[in-house]
Design a protein that fits this description.
The protein is α/β, with parallel strands linked by helices. Helices cover 40% and strands 15% of the residues. The protein is built from 12 helices and 8 strands. It has an 8-stranded parallel barrel, surrounded by 7 helices. Strand 2, helix 3 and strand 3 form a beta-alpha-beta unit. The longest helix is centred in the middle third of the chain and has 15 residues. The two termini are 27 Å apart.
């Protein structure tokens, strides 16, 4: 049997947080429904970020209320602080909550201060409070941002990242995501870090394609044993539009491109390529511009029996 992977589609959260204009709620809902129809088993739907800080997610509860729920499809929301978890609990009690919550830390002090407005120690205190508030009612996903390098401090000690992953594991996280937030990872650094973490909870590879290495890094993570990946349609995303750091194209690995490569490699994604292509086109229509997927222009990689002689 070929390897199987789980890809979490992040367009509606990590993708849209970079957009300066609000995307209508109905558009988000239609896109999220199309992702589930295409076969994604994990979908990042929204964030409980403060509406004044990240206005694009001011409709978080409405989005979660209106999307269609599919058996076996987990919907994830990001929670930067305890107040966000309280909002998630309110939605859950109202019958339209998320299945998973992402809890955030950064591997550097400077990024923590810029992105979360606290210190690393302060954010870990928040995370502990958030876990206690969640009370076992959600699947918890720990997220370690700038795991491969910080835009303000440069190199990040892999030992610190390993300690953060272990700390999330001790708190009961079901998954831990490693974020290459500004696209500085290399296949060598990816293999080394993922190999170091293979004894802990399942690790999710979350790469940004800022320097064109995102897919190479995803393949390196696959080779190191990773079977969980975050991607975004069209390669959109990055830091919130009001919180600028990094340069160039800050977006995620393109879902379409990575799925195409994995499919050609015999790696099972469980995704319907025709429905994926339709969802890709809908994402471009929603944002009113061509996005960054190579596959959206050239088509999926032919498999051997499809190639011309």
């Amino acid at each position: 049997m070929p390897d199987a992977v789980t890809i979490c589609e992040c367009f509606a959260r990590d993708g849209l947080q970079h957009e300066p204009e609000f995307v209508p709620t109905a558009t988000k809902v239609a896109l999220l429904d199309s992702f589930a129809d295409a076969g994604f088993r994990r979908i990042e739907a929204t964030s409980y970020s403060h509406p004044a800080r990240v206005p694009g997610f001011s409709d978080a509860s409405e989005v979660l209320t209106k999307i269609r729920r599919h058996p076996g499809v987990a919907v994830k929301a990001t929670c930067p602080n305890p107040h966000a978890v309280r909002r998630a609990l309110d939605d859950l009690d109202a019958g339209h909550g998320a299945d998973e919550l992402s809890l955030l830390v950064s591997a550097s002090e400077s990024h923590t201060e810029r992105n979360l407005r606290t210190s690393r120690a302060g954010q870990w205190e928040r995370v502990e409070e958030m876990v206690a508030l969640a009370g076992g009612r959600f699947k918890l996903v720990g997220v370690v941002s700038v795991a491969f390098g910080c835009p303000f401090e440069g190199a990040v000690d892999p030992g610190r990242v390993a300690e953060d992953v272990a700390r999330f594991a001790d708190l009961g996280a079901d998954l831990v995501t490693l974020g290459d937030t500004t696209g500085v990872a290399t296949p060598a650094s990816v293999r080394a870090l993922f190999a170091r973490l293979n004894a802990g909870p399942p690790v999710v590879a979350h790469f940004h394609n800022t320097r064109g290495t995102g897919i190479a890094n995803a393949v390196a993570a696959l080779e190191a044993g990773c079977r969980n990946f975050d991607t975004a349609m069209g390669g959109v995303g990055g830091h919130p539009s009001a919180i600028r750091y990094g340069a160039g194209l800050t977006g995620n690995v393109c879902t379409e491109d990575l799925v195409s490569l994995f499919d050609a490699m015999g790696v099972v994604t469980g995704l319907d390529l025709d429905l994926l292509a339709k969802a890709s086109a809908a994402c471009e229509e929603a944002l009113g511009r061509p996005l960054h997927s190579m596959v959206a222009r050239a088509g999926f990689t032919p498999t051997p029996n499809q190639e011309n002689p």
